[in-house]
Amino acid sequence: xxxxxxxxxxxxxxxxxxxxxxxxxxxxxxxxxxxxxxxxxxxxxxxxxxxxxxxxxxxxxxxxxxxxxxxxxxxxxxxxxxxxxxxxxxxxxxxxxxxxxxxxxxxxxxxxxxxxxxxxxxxxxxxxxxxxxxxxxxxxxxxxxxxxxxxxxxxxxxxxxxxxxxxxxxxxxxxxxxxxxxxxxxxxxxxxxxxxxxxxxxxxxxxxxxxxxxxxxxxxxxxxxxxxxxxxxxxxxxxxxxxxxxxxxxxxxxxxxxxxxxxxxxxxxxxxxxxxxxxxxxxxxxxxxxxxxxxxxxxxxxxxxxxxxxxxxxxxxxxxxxxxxxx
Length: 327
Known about the structure:
Layout: H1 52-74, E1 76-84, E2 87-98, H2 100-104, E3 123-132, H3 143-151, H4 154-161, E4 165-173, H5 175-178, E5 189-200, E6 209-221, E7 227-235, E8 264-276, E9 282-291, H6 298-326
Parallel strand pairs: 6-8
Antiparallel strand pairs: 1-2, 2-3, 3-9, 4-5, 5-6, 6-7, 7-8, 8-9
């Protein structure tokens, strides 16, 4: 049960995928079946699509509450001294599991973006926190580099600095719609919404995985007026979307090498918050839950995720340093 120090959980930053009907209006979604799976007249009429402002405000607000309040209040610290070369900053690793009963208590149908979901499994979350010198030097990065690397072109940059990611396929974007959107009164600026399929190699004999996500990015204000950014990813069921390439198997035989292989559809959700603190250092916090799907058991996945979460810090810092040297 939520307390004054633990805000209630929301219904968007979850491992259960959004349906296409849960997304704001888009020209490519107009003629699709609203249920994603069937256009039968026997199906119950879905609620109207959320407006773009409602969807983005709800998701960004939920993510902010989660990373700034829920995570510090409920997650357990596993380690405070993980290393992730070439990054100099030590990494704190945290974890928390939400039971099915906790997820069932979420106001799924009465939230700003109603969802008809009955969760039957738990969510295992892992998180990390690191503090970096705000400097354009070896082992760290300054704020401009953090913002350009994490917020701008987030998914494409993730492909570039993560060895196991072999494709970041942009499916749809709301760039024209968000260009004139003003969420400044709610504390969010330069907001963007895009759909991506993120494709990952797994060790043989496992099939590649595709994680289809809605990616929302924004700049925010940090304490004492410092700069901040927010990156939120939530899973979306894109199997009924013609523009998808991997979720519906359209890539099979059409691409070369791993890009032409069948992918197992996994699910992934995450929130990243970076901001400049009052001491001038950059605090970077990330929390994630995932399910790689297929026959890979969850207990095995839980063994690998913490190490990958920590490793990402060094991968990003190393990639930034490489870009800096090439400039």
